[in-house]
Amino acid sequence: MAMRKVAVVGAGMTRFVRRALETGKELSYEASKMALDYCDLTLDEVDCVVHGTAPDSFDGVHMKGEYLSDGSGAWRKPYTRCYVGGGTGVFAPIHGWYHVASGLFDICLVVCEEKMSSCQPHPQGAFLTIFDHTTERPLKPNLLWIFAMEMNRYMHTYGLKKEDIALVSVKNKRNAADHPCSLLGDANITLQDVLNSEVLAWPVQRLDVSPVTDGAVALVLAAEHVARRICDKPIWIEGVGWNLDTAYWTNRDLCYPRYVEKAARMAYEMAGITEPRKQIHIAEPYDPFDYKELHHLEGLMLFDRGKAPEATALGITQRNGDLPVCPSGGLLGVGNPIAAAGLMKVAELFWQLRGEAGARQVPGQPRRGVAQAWGDLMQVGTVAVLGV
Amino acid sequence: MAILNKPDKVHQAIAWHGDIPITNRYTAGVAGERFFREVKENGKFMGTRCPECDLIYVPATMFCERCFAELDEWVQVENQGQVVTYTILYWDLDDQPLAVPLVLALVQLDGSDGGLVHYLGETDPEDVYIGMEVEAVLKDPAEREGSILDIRHFRPIQV
Fold first, then answer.
1. Is residue A178 part of a domain?
2. A139 inside domain
3. Chain A nearest-CA residue for B9
């Protein structure tokens, strides 16, 4: 395939908050403006815009892609919204990537936004509507049911305890204490705090899960000839992959995300990665729940099945460990404005690989990272590999 | 990195409540119609078999998602099966505590490659385990409406 090289040349991010005064348009604008300012581009120079945002019902605006278009800089430009549920945040830059890699456009602005606080009394009510209207919705389950059952299956299969999994939450909330945009950073949180938090849907407790959040993130993507001209250290999108598993519960392996593995294999092949455990220096897997970080690390083939908890306990995934995982603080620490949270992970790789992550900087001049998100009906994996 | 200025008193901002008034009328579909009629009228669970992939789908589906064959081979499966995984719910949809915790389980029905998500009843939540043998408890025939709620819940099989 004759595809052009594509780089990330700018990133911007709003603070992640429980309830923003800003409208979704304004959040999108804040992040977009910051990303353009970062690389000294004006809106005129942007050829096309890609927006990623999760269910309309969070913002309470039907067709919110159109509603958010002005804040995303789409006035009189080619504009599309892409959507794969929670996987959107990593899919949006993939969508942007093929706009540029194809040769159609040189500069693409990628924006992801979520204003979940609009949904009353709680976005769980909106989440319920994503389930099958005939076989599942009449049961009126709590949103957490599907995750709780997957987590239980994961624990059962590998003989894991809550303690083994809660360590992820501790690590990420501590990491987020160094993130200026974080909602939930806490340098002093302990394992006991997580284990003592209230049980929502066993085995999920309050501090195992990331909360409702408002926020936006934006990236600027550029074709190679532009990137080299306007950016001193472009961060290349080396590989992308995405994959969807069955929506039927019982036809899916709940203890192992095969769809993430398939997405990762696609991205690794494109990036020329043959030994991910050696060739990837930072991972930002999707962590809306603590067990999901572990699940996804295994799907990304960075650890053997069932072994990510042990690696976590050994400190391998700490910011100064052999494979730093979620040095940003992840969704558990920075917050979870669905699509924006996924794009935050790609933005984190951009800052980390450029050596601009400040107090969050991973030591040792990392040269390559992987970001991954997960969503739809809990069976989509989206993966991007970025490198210097 | 730039940072959004967080308003200190967002609760004082002008806000109002609105809704998007939409009501829907859903059908169960070609395969779903037959599946739920069998439950309603005969108290039986039926699946559809894909001979190519050797899979029995429950609830029945009109086509095989793996090979795209149209499925017309209907087979009866058991009203009982095994708990694949489960959760105990303590909070409702509005993030309010439930008076009585609910147990929700994924049950793989014997004789099928599929299963149903449903409540577990007639058991203490503490006694539930993965691999537990459970059976469906249906409403009385006169009460059934062709809904997933025609199954009251699953309960442990008394040995």
1. no
2. no
3. A21
